[in-house]
Write a structure and sequence with these properties.
By secondary structure, the protein is α/β, with parallel strands linked by helices. The protein has seven helices and seven strands; from the N terminus they run ααββαβαβαβαββα. The longest helix has 23 residues.
């Protein structure tokens, strides 16, 4: 049954996305805001498809920890779901993503139109400087930034190396960094075709204070996110090994 429902979910997501992607093409001629609204509706519709076909729902905890100002979300990354989630949480998020995605026909064009923050991993220090400039520009224009410090999806119970770019963003921005823990990989895992029904938990954690040195900040960020994500995994009945 899980296989059949996974097939149905995959078919619906990709089939619906093809229709939406083609329908959004004329919006390239409109102001950016029109594309942002369409993109947001697309992401929310995919979450609905997941709920109806696979029984995957979600719960957000810790909203009281979210400042009223724009922030930098530093999120755990376990699933494709994570890239949809922030469109349901806030208006017009500025995701930090790899530049290669902008080269994908249609999808990449829309990402570029919405003015997300792209990273050229081959550009070295100049790429980081550009990310910092783009991050501060987005924050100053009332757009919260979303970054996955691990840089890639991790398997539940494991962690990838946290990349230092988030520390540079923390040092340069006047807006707070808000850690986010989640357990999405238990239900839609990295490269897993078989999905599992259940409730994904995303937990907004308290903002990290300013004034820490880069190494101290990285250590604290990683500790907070990993500990909270581990608790969410255990709450859902996940036992490593």
């Amino acid at each position: 049954m899980l296989f059949i429902r996974s097939v149905l979910m995959t078919f619906c997501i990709y089939g619906w996305s093809v229709i939406v992607v083609l329908a959004m093409l004329p919006l390239l001629l409109f102001p950016r805001g029109a594309m942002v609204k369409a993109f947001t509706l697309w992401m929310k519709s995919l979450m609905w498809i997941m709920k109806v076909t696979m029984g995957i729902t979600y719960e957000v905890r810790g909203m009281e920890n979210l400042p009223k100002e724009t922030v930098i979300f530093a999120s755990k990354h376990q699933s494709t779901w994570d890239t949809l989630f922030f469109y349901t949480l806030i208006d017009d998020p500025a995701y930090v993503l790899k530049k290669e995605l902008l080269s994908i026909p249609f999808y990449g064009w829309y990402l570029k139109k919405t003015k997300l923050i792209s990273v050229d991993r081959n550009a070295g220090a100049s790429a980081l400087k550009q990310v910092i400039r783009d991050t501060n520009y987005a924050l100053d224009h009332e757009r919260s930034v979303v970054i996955f410090p691990e840089g890639t999806r991790s398997i539940p119970g494991e962690k990838s190396t946290y990349q230092p770019g988030i520390a540079a963003m923390y040092k340069s921005a006047t807006h707070p960094v808000v850690p986010v823990a989640l357990n999405s990989g238990l239900y839609w895992g990295r490269r897993d075709f078989i999905k599992r029904p259940g409730k994904i938990i995303a937990e907004i954690l308290p903002p990290l204070g300013k004034g820490m040195k880069a190494r101290e900040f990285m250590s604290e960020l990683e500790r907070i996110i990993e500990e909270a994500s581990t608790k969410l995994n255990e709450e859902a009945g996940f036992l490593k090994g």
